[in-house]
Design a protein that fits this description.
Protein name: DUF2188 domain-containing protein
Largest sheet: 5 strands, mixed
Number of strands: 5
Pfam family, one: DUF2188
Shape: globular
Strand content: 35-45%
Number of domains: 1
InterPro entries: DUF2188 (IPR018691)
Distance between the termini: 14 Å
Radius of gyration: 13 Å
Length: 74
């Protein structure tokens, strides 16, 4: 199975940022703008996953692009 690259949409003070590993890909004033930017970068880096967090840092939802391993085989 191929490893997926993970991108995260996380709160950043009064705004939101898209990050990949320890680097920040972009910053945005709204969560919707950050999600749109995160989807674009994740779709361009398939196989990948976009993990969207709430303002408290907990995971809200995830989007997987290409080769979703669930349900697992077997």
């Amino acid at each position: 199975m191929t490893s997926r690259t993970q991108f995260h949409v996380v709160p950043d003070g009064g705004g939101w940022r898209v990050e990949h590993g320890s680097s920040v890909d972009s910053t945005h004033s709204t969560k919707d703008d950050a999600i749109a930017a995160g989807r674009k970068v994740a779709k361009g880096s398939q196989p990948s996953q976009l993990v969207v967090h709430n303002t408290d840092g907990k995971i809200e939802t995830e989007y997987t692009y290409q080769d979703d391993p669930f349900p697992p085989a077997g």
